[in-house]
Design goal:
heterodimer; A: mainly alpha; about 70% helix; B: alpha+beta; Alpha-Beta Plaits; two-stranded antiparallel sheet; about 25% helix; Dimeric_a/b-barrel (chain B)
Chain lengths: ~375, ~120
């Protein structure tokens, strides 16, 4: 971790070129091949950068290994392994999750400070401070870039998965600015999770479950926005735009996740996401989704899950029952809460629906959300 | 915010529900717990199956489960977070166990391990 800034710079400069091309092409057909190519380029650039660095800064070192090229292992295996080691080093419990995300974007994904600030909806200064503190902490803790010991993998993996999950969510749930870059966050999170799934010692059920979840969600990317960049709500989406290959991959990884007796929140969320790939409403579908949310909330509460559960309840038990449960949530400063109540009251008490939708409109942070709420108000 | 344990008491633990009844009951229980968890008030919970149940008596006498010897059995519990016992009681009122005649849910406050209580 001594040369962590150097690693950041190298990753930033070398990766940028690769990053500039693929986000616009969508998800590669063969992620493995794509991954290796990117990794190879990265390593090659890394290598030459490193040589320059050594030549300039530490000529003594150069002399020590005089007489030939420094032998760097460029095998796919080694490239993958070193990225995995870096993931574990960055996702160290000593530093807070938002700093882990920042470092992951900087070192593993090669994002520039501006891009990170933009992607995480914050400013350059905050990102710089966050990264600075994180680097200091990693140095203080003498965190090494190594793979955790076998007994430790499981414990450390939890932090890693949380970071990758948050990274994906950053891209998925905030639809505000820089749409392309936001999707890029999701794709980077997927690439890193894919690395974990491909490694013998980290190919564990929760990793596969998380990857499955990401595949299912990502399958709807093209359908989530209309030509004007506005959000298309789930029930208005054109399912012909859903990516069947990714849905298939989601099912594949969910199947792989079912080994073992661990039931992580990723398993539950992936299964919920699976049910959302079934477009048609059926009693079975919503009953399953409701039960999954019931379980999810007992192991990992989140306001979003609570609201989604209530929506599933309206589909299984009807709007009045759902309204009673929704009002108990009392998430009054959350615009999704008011949007949900607005939707539930529509057709039952349009006056109350209007009050909630107006409250939602006041609280909504993004133009996309505001325009969605406006459309709901017009439909009353 | 305090923690309360909601203990499910069955008047007659020897009654065996059909698999269909069990399924309906499970679903109702999950909906009930989900509603509490959606308010971020669920802490923990467990069913207490009757197989492998033992009662250890005075002088280390061990009997096979609670049935037969005493009328009432405990079927499970959940631990919730609540502002007051009244809120915990409101949660308890929704418990599907109460559909059974003579069944009850006991609400007990859990001592905080903070040295104050």
């Amino acid at each position: 971790m001594e040369h962590i800034e150097l690693a950041e710079d190298i990753a930033g400069e070398t990766f940028l070129a690769a990053l500039e091309t693929w986000p616009y092409k969508g998800i590669p057909e063969n992620p493995a091949a794509w991954l290796y190519t990117v990794a190879k380029n990265k390593a090659a650039n890394h290598y030459s950068r490193l040589q320059t660095f050594r030549a300039k800064i530490t000529p003594a070192l150069q002399q020590a290994s005089s007489g030939g090229e420094i032998d760097i292992d460029l095998s796919d295996r080694n490239i993958t392994d070193s990225q995995l080691q870096m993931i574990f080093a960055i996702c160290h419990p000593a530093i807070p999750p938002e700093a882990q995300i920042g470092l992951a974007l900087r070192i593993l994904c090669g994002f520039g400070i501006d891009e990170i600030a933009n992607a995480l909806l914050t400013n350059k200064e905050t990102v710089n401070k966050r990264l600075y503190r994180a680097r200091e902490k990693l140095r203080q803790e003498k965190v090494e870039i190594t793979f955790p010991a076998p007994g430790e993998v499981n414990r450390r993996l939890e932090t890693v998965l949380t970071t990758l999950y948050l990274l994906f969510n950053e891209g998925y749930y905030s639809e505000s600015q820089g749409a392309v870059l936001r999707e890029e966050l999701c794709l980077e999170a997927m690439r890193l999770t894919y690395l974990l799934a491909g490694n013998e010692s980290t190919n564990l059920p929760p990793v596969n479950a998380l990857l499955s979840l990401m595949c299912f969600h990502a399958s709807r990317f093209p359908a989530r926005k209309n030509d004007h960049g506005e959000i298309v709500l789930y029930h208005d989406q054109d399912e012909n735009l859903w990516n069947l290959e990714l849905i298939g991959k989601g099912a594949y990884y969910l199947h792989r996740a079912s080994g073992g007796d661990q039931l992580s929140k990723y398993h539950i969320e992936a299964t919920i996401a699976y049910w959302h790939t079934v477009k048609e409403d059926s009693a079975e579908k919503w009953e399953n989704i409701l039960q999954l949310y019931n379980r999810l909330l007992t192991i990992a509460y989140s306001p979003i899950a609570a609201l989604n559960r209530t929506f599933a309840l309206s589909k299984t038990k009807g709007k009045p029952a759902a309204i009673a449960e929704a009002e108990k949530l009392a998430l009054t400063d959350n615009h999704y809460y008011h949007t949900l109540l607005g939707e539930l009251y529509t057709g039952i008490d349009n006056g109350k629906a209007r009050i909630h939708l107006e409250a939602a409109s006041q609280l909504a942070k993004t133009e996309a959300d505001k325009s969605t709420i406006r459309r709901m108000l017009e439909g009353l | 915010m305090d923690e309360f344990i909601l203990i499910f008491r069955h008047e007659d633990g020897t009654k065996v529900a059909s698999p269909e009844q069990m399924q309906v009951w499970m679903k109702q229980t999950m909906d009930w717990i989900g509603g509490i968890a959606a308010q971020n008030k669920f802490k923990h919970g467990n069913g207490l199956p009757f197989e492998d149940a033992r009662v250890v008596w005075h002088n280390n006498v061990v009997t096979n489960g609670p049935f037969g010897d005493i009328k009432e059995t405990i079927g499970g519990y959940i631990i919730v977070k609540a502002e007051s016992v009244d809120e915990a009681v409101e949660f308890a009122k929704g418990c599907p166990v109460l559909q059974g005649d003579g069944n009850s849910v006991e609400v007990r406050k859990i001592i905080k391990g903070d040295g104050i209580h």
